[in-house]
Each structure stands twice: as C-alpha cells, then as structure tokens.
Amino acid sequence: MTEPYDCTECQESLFGQKYILKDESPYCLKCYEELFCSTCEVCEKLIGCTCKDLSFKGRHWHSECFLCSTCSRSLVDLPFATNDDKLMCIECFTNEFSSKCHVCLKTIMPGSKKMEHKGNSWHENCFICNRCQQPIGTRSFVQKEAKNYCMPCYEKHFALQCIYCKKPITTGGVTYRDQPWHKECFVCIGCKQQLAGQRFTSQDDFAYCLNCFCNLFAKKCAYCTTPISGLGGSKYISFEQRQWHNDCFNCKKCSVTLVGRGFLTCKDDIFCPDCGKDL
C-alpha cells in the first residue's frame, strides 16, 4: 500500500527529498520529468523541473534555446514572429518578409501606412508626384515610365488633348487619322453611337457606323431595295445604273442565279436566256 509520502509513480519514499504535487498526487523529480515535462524544440532535450519552460502554440523551449533563427538574439523579453515554424525577432522578420519602399528601398514596418500599386509599395511620405513633389495619398494619379504623377501635373505636361472636346486624354484614348480622341467623343456623326471597338467608315472626313453609312450613302439593291454596302469584300452586280446583291441577282421567272451568266432585261426585270425566249 502506497504511503502518503511515497512517489505516486515509483513508490519510492519522498522523506527528505524534493517532490512535486500534480493533481494533489506527489511525484519525485525524476518521475515527474519523465511523465510531464516537455522536450525542447531546439536541443530536443528534456526541459527539467528546475528550468524555465517557454511555450508557444503547443511548442516548448529552454529559455537559452528561445532564439531568433536569423540573428540568434534571445527572444525571452522581445516581441517575435514566426515563419515556417521558425522563430524570428521582429527586426529580422520585417527585413526579410516586409515590403520594401519603391523609392527609398527601406523596409515598410508592419503597422505603418503604405501605398501599393501594380506590385510596388511605398511609404506614405515617399508616394509623391514626380513633378510637383506633393504627396499623392489617395488621389488619382498616372504612372509614366515608372514614375508617378498627380493628375493635374500629368494633364498639364504629358496628356494629349482630344481633337473634339479639347480636354486631356488620361485613359482610353482612340487615334483616328493621326489625331487623338476620347472614346466617348469618337462617335458616329449620324446616330452618335461610340465607334471604338467596332467597324466604321468615313465620308467627307466624317466617321459613320456601317448602318448609318449604308442608309445615307450606299446604293439600294434593285430587287430587295436594302443598301449594298460593298464593305468587307461583299460582292454585288452593277448594270445600267442599277445594282443587285449577288444573292438577289436571279431570274425573275425561274429564280436561277444569273451571276456569271448571260441574261436578258425586260423593263425593270431580268431573265435567264431560257425564260427570255418566251418574252
């Protein structure tokens, strides 16, 4: 029978020895260390009862093993961070993993305000207009040749002016006949529909969408009366001031195509030679 002053594990007497109570049960130091003490993450040795056990997220270290993995500085009284389970002091962590300012090339410390654009980062005080040297902050800006410009400076010194409205073009411009236009200014002279990104043509230096151009200028098919655009390589037949779509150039009587064949006319109609015999 175990006596009140015997080790709970090995039953050795604890009289005159140091011992530790756990859950109100006494253990000699050897048994306690084997049963309950943790192993150090670095040296893989037991963290004994007389040693300071430092723990973080279920992992344990001797105080002398609790070091920055980069500079080996003790982290006992310092703030630290982890990367891939490696401990690092804040200085080493920020130098290795924090963003670098695109201008001064210094580390942007965690918690400090930074500006980002297309994969680059800046200190707030370094994010300035390359022309007027004023902070850009959250204002609109334009990047030209890897340099940042506030919108007023960019418009004043670099932006092209729209040939129509005479205002600067900062984004989405269109070039037509070597002249710059805003997309929203480059429209069909007839219906005012934007022409950027779609097929169009011109007449007397004015741009037209295909529908307006055909309705205004194209000849009409003698058969179906719809416009013959002649654009995009579409073919048509012309004879004595009249025009037909290829698909409309058929015998009035038997509807056979007359494209590439001889034909006869009678008033406004056309006939194949066989049907023309009966005229």
In words, what does this structure look like?
- This protein is of the alpha+beta class and 279 residues long.
- Helix content is 13%, strand content 28%.
- The chain has 5 helices and 22 strands.
- It has helices spanning 29-36, 90-97, 151-157, 210-217, 273-276; strands spanning 19-22, 25-28, 53-56, 59-62, 80-83, 86-89, 114-117, 120-123, 141-144, 147-150, 160-161, 168-169, 173-176, 179-182, 200-203, 206-209, 219-220, 227-228, 236-239, 242-245, 264-266, 269-271.
- Strands 1-2 form a two-stranded antiparallel sheet.
- Strand 21 (264-266) and strand 22 form a beta hairpin.
- The model has no long low-confidence stretch (mean pLDDT 84).
Overview in brief:
The protein has 279 residues and is α+β, with helices and mostly antiparallel strands. The protein has 5 helices and 22 strands. The longest helix has 8 residues, at 29-36.
Taking all Cα atoms into account, the compactness measure Rg is 44 Å
Strand order of the largest sheet: 1-2
Our estimate of the beta-strand percent is 25-35%
Low-confidence stretches: none
Series of secondary-structure elements, N-terminal to C-terminal:
EEHEEEEHEEEEHEEEEEEHEEEEEEH
| Number of distinct beta strands | 22
| Structure annotation, total helices | 5
Average pLDDT metric: 84
The computed structural class is: alpha+beta
Largest sheet features: 2 strands, antiparallel
Query: Roughly what percent helix?
Result: 10-25%
Task: Give the overall shape.
Answer: elongated
CA distance, first residue to last residue? 135 Å
